[in-house]
């Protein structure tokens, strides 16, 4: 009897498959993300528009330049330091002020904005206290004795101009030695400028009949000659008390009846020489 072959059975374990949630999720529109993206886009657009309006549009273009405090300096020359049509936010205020202060006439300059179209330039000029005339040139001198501005006969301001009206109030000194002068040169001392201002103020008060025409510089640095309009020439010492010299001159005129066309020498204290 023949035997049937044995069936070989393989025992193989099969791993079970695991499936997730078989129920489909419902799709949602990403509204929050879109709104966030739109918000950022609007912010960037607003910033870009703001930058354009402030720095590139015609809304803030400079069309007016105002100048304050300029008498000796030409206002038109100061206005030319600012480019009309430029953007007001891009005007280099400090750079313009620094450039203006390099002018020997200007002590201080301030540049400010007047929105939306105006730039204001305010300057403080040096104050002249004396007109020093030498070699046909008139130099303006401040209270420190520094010469900072010159005029020749052709450029000296007329009496009706703002400069001319200012210079008409300042005493004139003629340097009979005709020494040369340069800009920013200290040609005298504060002591002499103060002495001349005192004589210019006090002498007409004490002797109104002797209005001053001009001063002349004598041989010594501090010896002055006061030339009056009636013709009297008064030699004074810039190192002596001006009040004492004026008092002595007043006695000569009122007590001694010295002619108003005489030549008076007051250089020696308590003495007077009359020609």
Describe this structure in words.
With 275 residues, the chain is of the alpha/beta class. 27% of the residues lie in helices and 24% in strands. It contains 6 helices and 13 strands. The strands form 2 sheets. A 10-stranded mixed sheet has the order 8-6-5-4-7-9-10-11-12-13, covered by helices on one side. A 3-stranded mixed sheet has the order 1-3-2. A hairpin with a 2-residue loop joins strand 4 (130-134) and strand 5 (137-141). The mean pLDDT is 88.
Which architecture of the largest domain would the CATH scheme give at its second level? 3-Layer(aba) Sandwich
Topology as H/E string? HEHHEEEEEHEEHEEEHEE
Share of helix among residues?
A: 25-40%
Taken as a percent bin, the fraction of beta residues is 15-25%
The rounded distance between the terminal residues' Cα atoms is: 184 Å
Strand order of the largest sheet: 8-6-5-4-7-9-10-11-12-13
What is the helix tally?
Answer: 6
The total domain count is: 2
The CATH first-level class of the largest domain comes to Alpha Beta
Q: Quick one: biggest sheet?
A: 10 strands, mixed
CATH third-tier fold name of the largest domain: Rossmann fold
**How many beta-strand runs?**
13
Low-pLDDT sequence parts: none
Structural class: alpha/beta
What is the molecular shape? rod-shaped
**Rg over alpha carbons:** 44 Å
What value does the average pLDDT take?
A: 88
């Amino acid at each position: 009897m023949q035997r049937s072959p044995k069936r070989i059975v393989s025992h193989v374990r099969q791993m079970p498959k695991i499936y997730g949630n078989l129920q489909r999720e419902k799709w949602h529109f990403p509204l929050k993300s879109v709104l966030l993206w739109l918000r950022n886009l609007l912010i960037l657009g607003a910033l870009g528009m703001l930058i354009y309006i402030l720095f590139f549009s015609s809304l803030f273009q400079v069309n007016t330049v105002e100048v304050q405090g300029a008498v000796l300096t030409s206002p038109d020359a100061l206005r030319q330091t600012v480019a009309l049509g430029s953007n007001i936010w891009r005007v280099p205020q400090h750079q313009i002020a620094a450039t203006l202060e390099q002018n020997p006439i200007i002590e201080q300059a301030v540049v400010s904005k007047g929105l939306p179209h105006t730039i204001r330039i305010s300057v403080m000029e040096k104050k002249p206290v004396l007109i020093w005339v030498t070699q046909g040139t008139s130099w303006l001198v401040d209270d420190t004795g520094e010469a900072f501005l010159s005029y020749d006969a052709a450029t000296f301001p007329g009496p009706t101009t703002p400069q001319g009206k200012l210079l008409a109030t300042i005493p004139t000194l003629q340097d009979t030695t005709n020494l040369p002068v340069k800009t920013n040169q200290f040609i005298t001392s504060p002591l002499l400028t103060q002495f001349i201002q005192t004589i210019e103020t006090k002498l007409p008060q004490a002797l109104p009949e002797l209005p001053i025409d001009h001063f002349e510089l004598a041989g010594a640095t501090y010896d002055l000659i006061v030339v009056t309009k009636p013709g009297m020439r008064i030699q004074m010492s810039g190192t002596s008390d001006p009040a004492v010299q004026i008092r002595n001159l007043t006695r000569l005129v009122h007590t001694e009846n010295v002619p108003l066309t005489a030549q008076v020498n007051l250089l020696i204290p308590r003495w007077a020489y009359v020609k």
